[in-house]
Amino acid sequence: MEIIKRDGRKVAFNRDKIERAILKAFLSVDNDWSDYAVTKA
After folding, report:
1. Which of 8, 22, 25, 41 is the most exposed place for a label (fewest CB within 10 A)?
2. In this predicted model, what pLDDT tens digit does every residue of 16-41 receive, in sequence order?
3. Alpha-carbon span 8 to 19, nearest angstrom
4. Distance between the two ends of the chain, CA-based, in angstroms?
């Protein structure tokens, strides 16, 4: 699957980038890795 970036480039979908973004969002809210966030990754 390809993703079209804002600048028009096409790049391969990278699940790891999505997972990292979600975990960073958990960290920014909780200031810690919650058990829920880590087990869902």
Report:
1. 8
2. 998 888 888 878 877 766 666 565 54
3. 23
4. 21
